[in-house]
Design brief:
The chain is an all-beta fold. The chain is about 5% helix and about 50% strand. It has one domain: Sandwich (Jelly Rolls), CATH 2.60.120. The chain is globular and about 40 Å long. The N terminus is likely disordered.
Length: about 140
């Protein structure tokens, strides 16, 4: 990591100079800023839900699940991980361990990997879930 310090040379007195520190990733580092467009990952298919990968690193994945009206994600678990869901469009029913929860745009949910989860999109409108899957190993660091 490289730290860059700049001085505000427009100040008339030295005691009024401000120091601003910027953190710039070094070319040697593996991780770096990566900007994506949510809209580019919201692609719907009338035949089945879509999964569009946004970021993928060891120990965590970020993707968008897109559901045309009425589509479903079958019941499943993510053993050894924690799942974070953000409803970015539409609404639907998330069922966790047989307990249905109504989700609307803007809702955020955390689901533990040993919990059985499924999703059923609204019958009238499309929906999209922004999903972050984090390995338990990463959470315990």
């Amino acid at each position: 990591m490289i730290t860059i310090t700049t001085l505000d040379m427009e100040s008339s007195k030295i005691e009024n100079n401000r120091t601003t520190t910027y953190v710039v990733p070094s070319e040697m580092e593996e991780n770096h800023m990566n900007k994506q467009s949510l809209q580019a990952h919201q692609q719907y298919d009338g035949a089945r839900f879509t999964k569009k990968m946004v970021f993928q690193q060891p120990g965590h994945n970020v993707f968008v699940l897109n559901f045309a009206a009425g589509q479903q994600l079958p019941a499943h678990r993510h053993l050894g991980a924690t799942v974070y869901l953000l409803v970015v469009a539409g609404k639907g029913i998330l069922t966790v361990d047989e307990q249905p929860i109504e989700l609307n745009t803007g809702d955020i949910v955390q689901v533990e990997g040993d919990e059985l989860m499924s999703y059923h999109g609204d019958e009238q409108e499309a929906s999209s879930l922004y999903v972050t899957l984090v390995s338990s190993d990463q959470l315990n660091k």
